Hints:
With 56 residues, this protein is mostly helical. The chain has one domain (3-54). It contains 2 helices and no strands. The chain has helices at 3-23, 31-54. Helix 1 (3-23) runs antiparallel to helix 2. The longest helix has 24 residues, at 31-54. The two termini are 17 Å apart. The model has no long low-confidence stretch (mean pLDDT 89).
Amino acid sequence: MPLSALAGIMAGFLLAYLIAEMALYLRPHPLHWLVAAIGGGIGYAGGLAWDFWYSG
């Protein structure tokens, strides 16, 4: 796994988690974990795309 993909997973997960926590603050539920997992997947795809695009 390229380092950019790993960084994308971490950044996407954290960013999506924080946004979901802020948006859904008044209603406690586990939906923010699902949103964070989707954000991690998008971050992974973005990291792979970054690696593919800039690795030549």
